[in-house]
Amino acid sequence: MSGLGNVFRRHLRRDRNALYVWGGICGGMALLMATMYPSIGESFAELIAAYPQAFLQAFIGRAFPAFGTVEGFMTVEFFSWIPVLFAAFAALAGAGMVAEETDRGTVEFLLAQPVRRSTVVVGKFLVFLVLLLGIVALTALALSGGLMAVGVEHAVRLFLHIFALNYLAAAAYGAVALLISTICGELRRATSLSLGVMFGTVVVLLVANLSDRLQSLGYLSPLYYAGAPKVLERGAMAAGDAAMLVAVTAVFFLAAVALFERKDLAG
User: Fold this and answer.
1) Gyration radius of the chain's alpha carbons
2) How many domains does the chain divide into?
């Protein structure tokens, strides 16, 4: 446990600036959206009527919320893109967990540590999960505080459910990127592939939302399980969606750990 603790503390100190940068950007945008709502919220239903239905269906899915409400406003203007930003952070962070050791020339140092290889990967992934949690929590806090300040706190509970699913979806992308990083062993390639997979699943979800024939393809995207309209329609996040995202994360994470244990880092 001390070995894992040392790895965790070392990488948390090194990577903590990501929390400030990403949390500040996401939290700032959340606060901006919350404070904008009173000025355009009442007329938003009229504004959104000018949007092509196909555009709305592609980006928010087939279950449209009531656009004249704060839930509808935030679904279109905030929750249609913030999960992608969380996923982008996860892809970038996951891609560097193993591949950066090669690029920084620290492979020999890694091999010389008195801990198992799996301990290094577990420690790095735990740091990623903590940083991701901090970013999502800061964003949720900013949005909740802003909405309470403008007197629409009734929507906060449902939005917290959406944030929870966004966190789980981003964690899944991080696990996928970790496996890619372990396979590639080169940072630029791992980053390109991880972002490619992430944006590829976004495109797949957009296509699935638009096509009845291809609708089932949406299940391949972690963001499908974190969609805001589904939470608003049910009144809570679905346990099945959360379980699916946890399962995906666990499978890719365990695969990365197993591969890293056997990988020839010196070769």
Assistant:
1) 20
2) 1
Rounded to whole angstroms, the Cα distance separating 10 from 5 reads 8
Residue 267 lies in a domain: no
First-to-last CA distance in the chain? 29
Measure the CA–CA gap between 226 and 170, rounded to whole angstroms: 10
H or E element, residue 36? helix 17-40
Q: Which domain holds residue 81?
A: 2-262
CB-based contact 58:209 (threshold 8 Å): yes
- Do the Cβ atoms of 75 and 232 come closer than 8 Å? yes
Flag whether 126 is in a domain: yes
Residue 194 in any domain: the answer is: yes
Type of residue numbered 126: L
In a domain, 195, yes or no: yes
Give the pLDDT confidence of 89-136 residue by residue, as tens digits: 999 999 998 877 666 666 566 656 666 778 888 999 999 999 999 999
206, 237, 209, 226: which is closest to 90 by C-alpha? 226
CB 253 within 8 A of CB 168: no
Whole-prediction pTM: 0.92
Let me know: does 222 contact 231? Beta carbons within 8 Å. Answer: no
Check: CB of residue 257 under 8 Å from CB of residue 118. Answer: yes
Q: What is the pLDDT of residues 168-188, one digit of tens each?
A: 999 999 999 999 999 987 889
